Amino acid sequence: MDNYQSAAHLAESLRPVGPAFCLRPHAARGAARWFTSHFPGKTLYAVKANPAPWMLDILRDEGVGFDVASIAEARRARAVAPDAFIGFMHPVKSREAIREAYVSLGVRAFALDSLEELAKIVEATDDADDLTLCVRIAVSSDLAKISLASKFGAAPEEAPALLRQARLKAARLGVCFHVGSQAMSPAAFTAALDRVERAIVVAGVFVDVLDVGGGFPAPYPGMMAPPLQDYVDAIEARFERMLVAENCELWCEPGRALAAEAASLLVRVEARKGDRLHINDGVYGALFDAGALNWTFPARAMKAIEAPREVIGYSLYGPTCDDYDAMAGPFYLPSDMSVGDYIEIGMLGAYGAAMATRFNGFGEHQEFVVTDAPMLSAYGATGRPGAGAAHRNEAMT
Ligand SMILES: Cc1ncc(COP(=O)(O)O)c(C=O)c1O
Known about the structure:
The protein is an alpha/beta fold. It folds into two domains: 128 residues, Lyase, Ornithine Decarboxylase, Chain A, domain 1 (Beta Barrel), CATH 2.40.37; 204 residues, TIM Barrel. It contains eleven helices and 19 strands. α2 runs parallel beside α3, α5 packs across α6 and α8 runs parallel beside α9. The longest helix has 17 residues. It binds pyridoxal-5'-phosphate.
């Protein structure tokens, strides 16, 4: 893969016709090192955020394990990491997937949120005696930007009975939860841990693994969360007071926080209609969250500097014929944007390429490595989100 100093350098020298990812492996490595050195337990990467082999290679090299949601993700993780720890953390799986994961891929940790799933895991593994069974408990997503509260997780009234049944079948009993993606306060985790502890106490079981899931935030314009260290400190302090087995292990499953900074997207303007720019990627490509969730990602124009230049807020439109292929923004860019200009859209290493479809014949992305810093970072010198980086969606001047 070719290397460039920056997206601007890439735009200038190659003038790519289609959308191009600017990969920053150094950013993924930095994020992985932060987690392995600051989180007081096992870090599992949520493969769904970005299953690209280069990303999995880096995380394996940095000693991170993998949280997989499907058998395809499990195969992918095992192919790049023959010795890595893999947890199958989707609470609903097919028997075939459980069996293959256990028998062929060496997976021993499984999530569940019902008695039915517990029976399935026991049956598909022939009543194995080396299982880590993690009961997913429903917790609030109120402090997160993306809810993960309504689909999975045993309700408070069901959790104790499920914990007791799982304890009977588990070599190691775990509890897991997800506070929702892009949790904007460490209180999301402490509140969840309060709820989990109540369930454990009512069940009267020993717990060997406490998995706090994903949800660790990445910096986006208008969504600057407290430093990641505050999250880890809050989790660690609450964990130390938890009524769990003395040798209980702490796990986390970040996706976004490990991957977001590791890629940006270089797009080209194909039409301008006032403050609307039609670009060559969109909601059905790598910009799902920009449209469906109305997230404003950092954006900068790859134009020569002609100061002073006025900056205005644009909305962006993707290449498909669908009305939903629209991103309200506003994305702040120079007022003289025109056809053929390039824009770099940052923080798309997580849930960017991973979400792209082939709708309308679009969805192909070229990939290049760039060596400059991500547009925003949670891993600056001070460890504070945004340290040393732009804090808002802005034009490159
Ligand atoms: C079980 C599980 N773990 C981890 C993650 C990763 O979450 P995030 O990217 O918010 O860190 C998800 C996201 O959907 C998930 O469902």
